């Protein structure tokens, strides 16, 4: 059994999350920007389908990417250098946040549904309006071919989802985010759950306790000034590769 969150009820301690399914902590019928901020500051995130209540998770271990450990294959490095020279795509920050979320929500070829519900789009778009959720977009002309989005608290970034309509487009968005994280002294990017794809890019598992301790500290730090990255030519950050 897991607790049902009432309107004024706080999240239970993450140590009470189930082992099977790993990390399921609580359920409820509310999802808004304020509740999302409470959740992320405690190492908790929502993940559910349209026909389910809002389910809250905090898995153990947690998948994270340390920006200094980001792995770039030879083929990806070639792509990033081409983009940095202006020969392929252009990159933006926060130019199409909701559109990026909608693209991430589109079912993959091996999936019949999406966990990014309309309620989630609305709640994260509200966070974006507050300056606490951000997206990196990859464009081929006027076509949005890749991107990612996530939540930013202090010097902590919580990656939510990414999509790709062209080879290496989502990896290119992630590479740009990694360079922003390095420049802004963000030591950790949350990847939530372990996948082979994320592991191939350098992400690794850490204990939930260690993750939550770092989140508690990093979320209290001075926030990033994302506006300077919104106005920048984001392709130039790829020159570091």
What does this structure look like?
By secondary structure, this protein is an alpha+beta fold. The chain is built from eight helices and eleven strands. It has a seven-stranded mixed β-sheet with strand order 6-7-8-9-10-5-11, with helices on both faces. The protein has a four-stranded mixed β-sheet with strand order 1-2-4-3, covered by helices on one side. The longest helix is centred in the last third of the chain and has 15 residues, at 169-183. The model has no long low-confidence stretch (mean pLDDT 95).
Report the portion of residues in β strands.
15-25%
CATH class of the largest domain: Alpha Beta
Helix-residue proportion? 25-40%
**How many distinct domains?**
2
Total number of helical segments? Answer: 8
Shape: globular
Question: What is the fourth-level CATH superfamily of the largest domain?
Answer: Leucyl/phenylalanyl-tRNA-protein transferase, C-terminal domain
As residue ranges, the low-confidence spans are none
CATH fold call of the largest domain: Aminopeptidase
CATH architecture of the largest domain: 3-Layer(aba) Sandwich
Question: From N to C, what is the helix and strand string?
Answer: EEHEEEHEHHEEEHEHEHH
Over all CA atoms, what is the radius of gyration?
Answer: 17 Å
How many angstroms separate the termini? 48 Å
What is the number of E strands? Answer: 11
The major pleated sheet works out as:
7 strands, mixed
């Amino acid at each position: 059994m897991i607790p049902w969150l009432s309107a004024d009820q706080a999240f239970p301690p993450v140590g009470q999350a189930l082992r099977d399914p790993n990390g399921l902590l609580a359920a409820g019928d509310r999802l808004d920007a304020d509740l999302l901020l409470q959740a992320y500051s405690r190492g908790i995130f929502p993940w559910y389908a349209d026909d389910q209540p809002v389910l809250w998770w905090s898995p153990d271990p947690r998948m994270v990417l340390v920006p200094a450990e980001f792995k770039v294959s030879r083929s990806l490095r070639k792509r990033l250098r081409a983009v940095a020279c202006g020969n392929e795509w252009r990159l933006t920050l926060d130019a199409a946040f909701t559109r990026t979320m909608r693209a991430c929500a589109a079912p993959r070829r091996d999936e019949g549904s999406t966990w990014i519900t309309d309620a989630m789009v609305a709640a994260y778009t509200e966070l974006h309006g507050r300056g606490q959720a951000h997206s990196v977009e990859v464009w081929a002309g006027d076509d949005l071919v890749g991107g990612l989005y996530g939540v930013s608290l202090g010097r902590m970034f919580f990656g939510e989802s990414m999509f790709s309509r062209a080879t290496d487009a989502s990896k290119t968005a992630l590479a740009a985010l990694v360079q922003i994280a390095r420049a802004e002294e963000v030591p950790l990017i949350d990847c939530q759950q372990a996948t082979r794809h994320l592991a191939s890019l350098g992400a690794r598992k850490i204990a939930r306790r260690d993750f939550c301790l770092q989140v508690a500290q990093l979320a209290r730090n001075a926030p990033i000034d994302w506006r300077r990255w919104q106005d920048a030519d984001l392709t130039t950050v790829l020159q570091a590769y």
